Amino acid sequence: MRIAVLAHVRQRIAEPFAGGMEAHCWQLAAGLQDRGHDVVLFASGDSDPRFAIDPVLPEHYERTFPWAEHRGSAPLIAHLDHGYAAACDRIAAGGFDVVHNNSLHRFPLEQRRTAMVPTVTSLHVPPYDALHWFVSQSPSPRHHLTVTSARQREAWWPAGAPAEVSILHNGIDAERWPYRTDGNGDAVWCGRITPNKGPHLAARAARAAGIRLTLFGAIEDPDYWSAEVEPLIADTVVYGGHLGAAALADELGRASLFVFTPCWDEPFGLVAAEAMACGLPVAAFDLGAAREVVGEAGRFAPPGDVEGLAATMREAMAIDPTVPRDRVMRLFTRERWLDRCEALYRTVMAGDARLAA
After folding, report:
1. Which of 85, 100, 164, 236 is the most exposed place for a label (fewest CB within 10 A)?
2. Are residues 155 and 7 in the same domain?
């Protein structure tokens, strides 16, 4: 197939990944390429040059419009609208069999566009006002939407989802997250360092549990880092930086526990699945899709409960590392995910939502 992968452009689609959306889109383009498809990545022009890139914008927009300052501003909206309108026009004229839309922009959802090129849209976030109406009006036989969990589907469609919506769990390339059983007794946390990911709560819980914790990830919100996280950095809580996938996988493999602290309605939690692939059990806040993803591979504390999370960390440490690894290999492999993507592409190309059931 000739496939257009349409990305969001807040960050580059390149390592070190800023977050799960960037990792997801990179893995999608790479996986489809590995399967022999003709893939063009519509992303910021400073994304990974290993791909054939058709730039939506010359560079990711945080270089021009830092998110913390300009979120929702008229100049940013105009900048994105101009880029996505032109990209959608190029996709329509580009001879593509299908487009996999990961952009979180309203233009690719319009039925006049999905009527021209069959489209699969993957939603990576909980519902929000700027996109909700456009999503609700977009399903059609040639446009299928996916969510990453049952919890996310219920959030977007509390009264029941239409036939053109299905759950597509994220997939993990197990070869990039090697399994080890010789953990060193430490815990790790990784993700975007921002309040809704809760690293300050992970640090406080680790100190209460007496377990050494290393935090990894991009400091997205410097004010939050300075006020809430950095003061907790001490002998038993350290910051390990923002690492590429190979270096991060090595760090995860040396540890014995992953701490997952969503403070929002987490749609999936790719970092937890990656850690599980390395054999790490998970101590998590029971929020969003955390229980759906982690399952028997972890233990859960009420959202925001630091003392409860500390107790959960000690309990989860006793889970055998084969349990998280087996769960990933059963439910969240890259091959399973890509098989499902290809099936969805055939569905929208045939124009029959029933084929996706």
Report:
1. 85
2. yes
- pLDDT 10s digits, 208-246: 999 999 999 999 899 999 999 999 999 899 999 999 999
Number of domains into which the chain is organized:
2
Q: Are residues 164 and 119 in the same domain?
A: yes
Are both 125 and 271 inside the same structural domain? no
Residue type, 280: L
Can you give the residue range of the structural domain that contains 307?
174-331
pLDDT band per the 50, 70, 90 thresholds, residue 64 = confident
Q: Clarify whether residues 229 and 111 are in a common domain.
A: no
**pLDDT (tens digit, 9 = 90+) per residue, 108-143?**
999 999 999 999 999 999 998 889 999 999 999 999
Do 27 and 151 fall within a single domain?
A: yes
- Bridge partners of 214, per DSSP, are 188, 238
Q: Is the alpha carbon torsion for 307, 308, 311, 313 positive or negative?
A: negative
